[in-house]
Amino acid sequence: MDLRASMAVWLRVLRGPYETVFAEELQKPYARLATAVIWLVAAGLVAVLIWILVFMLLDPMGQSMTMMPNLLAQMGFSAVESAELVSQMEDTAQVSMFLILCSLLIGIPGFTLAWSGVLWLVAKLFGGVGNYEKQTFLLASFTTPLVMISVVVYLFPLLGPLLVAGLSVYNVYLTFFALKVVHGLPAEKAFTAVAAPVVGLLVVGCCAVTLWLSILATALGAA
What we know:
- By secondary structure, this protein is mostly helical.
- It has one domain.
- Helix content is 86%, strand content 0%.
- The protein contains eight helices and no strands.
- It has helices at residues 3-15, 18-25, 33-58, 60-74, 79-125, 132-153, 159-183, 187-222.
- The longest helix is centred in the middle third of the chain and has 47 residues, at 79-125.
């Protein structure tokens, strides 16, 4: 599929009516896993390109490094020590930026494919009859444009993270209809099949954050 055809599918899926549109899209010849992977990789590429553009135009790392020598001097570091620390910080920042970009490029398609696998298994437990390929195609049809939009709106000061959170909730809402259509599940089972993994993911995330904070607090206390 070319870009124009793909965008037409994304807009149609996002506009709804969801169950009707989803059922129609599942019958299309492009409703394949390969299409989903291409779309998700494209979302990762767009995310990477946008962040590269932001760093090139705004240069937040360069601005921070410019102020760092004066800050270190006020803290009592010598010129030689400051230069060495700034050099280490620049190397660390570059490596971190590279890892972030790689995580966007690989993580967006990788996480979505894995997440679809989890949803598929849970849906099967509730009597779902759909297959992984069709389900993943539907998830990619709205996840791809929502990821692209999220990368852009996240750049807005203060409001950005709230908008991204709203788009994430909308993604879960569309996932409910996707499972309902693909697996032929009644509404209550489709809701549970989506809610159970989401709650589990939130619990794991909260535990990870708590563990990280405790490790950080221990390290600071030891210092």
